[in-house]
Amino acid sequence: MKVFVTRKIPEPGLNLLRKEFEVEINPYDRALSKEEIIGELKGKDGLLCLLTDPIDEDVINSEPKLKMIANYAVGYDNVDIKVATDRKIPVSNTPGVLTDTTAEMAWALLFSVARRIVESDEFTRSGRFKGWAPMLMLGQDVSKKTLGIIGAGRIGTAFALKSKGFNMNVLYVDNRLNETLENELGAKKVDLPFLLKESDFISLHVALNKSTYHMISEKELKRMKKSAVLINTSRGPVINEQALVKALKEKWIFGAGLDVYEHEPEISDELKKLDNIILQPHSASGTIETRTKMATTAAENMIAGLKGEIPPNCVNTEVFKGKL
Ligand code: GLV
Ligand code: GLV
Fold it and tell me: For this structure, is 264 an active site residue?
């Protein structure tokens, strides 16, 4: 069987695939256009794709032989799951392996914004540091503050648990009660307006879908404290970027740390000019260990799927109804 990989991923994953299949990989060091993916998909049984690839109806239905889609990401909003499911094509993601890594990036951003690390580095490096000063680069304390988690799934939970050493008061918004957070941190499940009003640090860990699109917009930003810090390592369109520009410019909040953008990879010029924001290039899962595990996880899912087995991280198991 033949598999197309839309961009070079770490070798251990490619090697697993090569043992089982004929593997073709995007030869360029860039994302492919939708038309290019359709072209490469001709005659392939499996597609291993990235979160930057729009795997929509046109792509999925362009190849009648296609029987497995392995997304190299935990988020799979880039894949039209309904179309894949109608075609009985299993789709898999890479959960678990990137949970701590992503949570660590959220903490890195939280501290960097709270203590103005990037701004201070530029200040110091450029020779403007003339000695200790009482009012120099004042930030926000983290210990004993209120931490607000929006989306208490795997990553949100791991992120919250890492607050233990900072003795924080933890609030969360989720559809479900999170017993781990309630038992281990005394965390409280609250509604969004309450979380926004009470939290000093707010971190987004939701999947992107209709109900989370622009979940943080003007009204929500206005509810936050003037000293609040907002962190987003989930998906860009969860925040209305223009509203965030306004909030940061007019200092409705203290600052923000973003790993993802509404119109990725485009970032509003106004956002880039602000000092009270730290920008990361969607690299929250970007460690050598984790990207390697994501590659082997995606490959293992591909192998299971093309053998007709249920992939270990299948996100549309209804495809197998009746076969179980
Ligand atoms: C990264 O954004 C992922 O979904 O894995
Ligand atoms: C700071 O360096 C202090 O000694 O207070």
Answer: yes
Select from 219, 240, 237 the least CA-distant residue to 51. Answer: 237
Catalytic residue among 235, 241, 262, 291: 235
Q: Which residue's alpha carbon is nearest to atom 1 within ligand 1?
A: 73
pLDDT tens digits for range 192-222: 999 999 999 999 999 999 999 999 999 999 9
Q: Is the distance from the beta carbon of residue 73 to the nearest atom of ligand 1 less than 6 Å?
A: yes
Q: Which residues contact 252 (CB under 8 A, 6 or more apart)?
A: 221, 222, 224, 226, 246
Residue 230 CA to residue 109 CA, distance in Å, equals 9
**Does the active-site annotation cover 235?**
yes
Residue of 63, 51, 107, 111 whose CA lies nearest to 89:
63
User: Matching CATH topology for 2-95+288-320 and 99-279?
Assistant: yes
In whole angstroms, what is the distance from residue 111 CA to residue 195 CA? 20
Residue nearest to ligand 1 atom 3, measured at CA: 73
**In the chain, where are the structural domains located?**
2-95+288-320, 99-279
**Class of domain 2-95+288-320 (CATH, top level):** alpha beta
- What pLDDT does 322 receive? 76
Tell me the CATH number of domain 99-279, given options 2.130.10.10, 3.40.50.720, 3.20.20.70, 3.40.50.1000.
3.40.50.720
74 lines ligand 1 (CB under 6 A): yes
Q: Which of 182, 184, 264, 270 is catalytic?
A: 264
pLDDT tens profile 31-68: 999 999 999 999 999 999 999 999 999 999 999 999 99
For the CA of 52, the nearest ligand: 1
* Overall average pLDDT of the 137-141 stretch: 98
Q: Of all atoms in ligand 1, which is nearest to the CA of residue 294?
A: 5
Q: Specify the pLDDT at position 324.
A: 58
